[in-house]
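User: I'm new to structure prediction. If I give you an amino acid sequence, what do you actually give back? Let's try with this one:
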Amino acid sequence: MTGKKPYKNQSAYCASKFAIVGFSKVLAVEAQECRNCYFSSENKKRNNN
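Assistant: Good question. You get back a string of structure tokens that encode the predicted 3D arrangement of the chain. For your 49 residues, that looks like this:
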């Protein structure tokens, strides 16, 4: 549970743990948005040919 609950003398670990978890979640959201944009633009290209 360290990294999710506050423990004495663990501030640096908790901060870095949250940074990795938060960063991973943001990347997943952005990757999904990017993937959707890529595939929708590919479909538009196919439909125009």
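You can read the tokens as a compact description of the fold. Here is one thing that stands out. The two ends are 55 Å apart (CA to CA).
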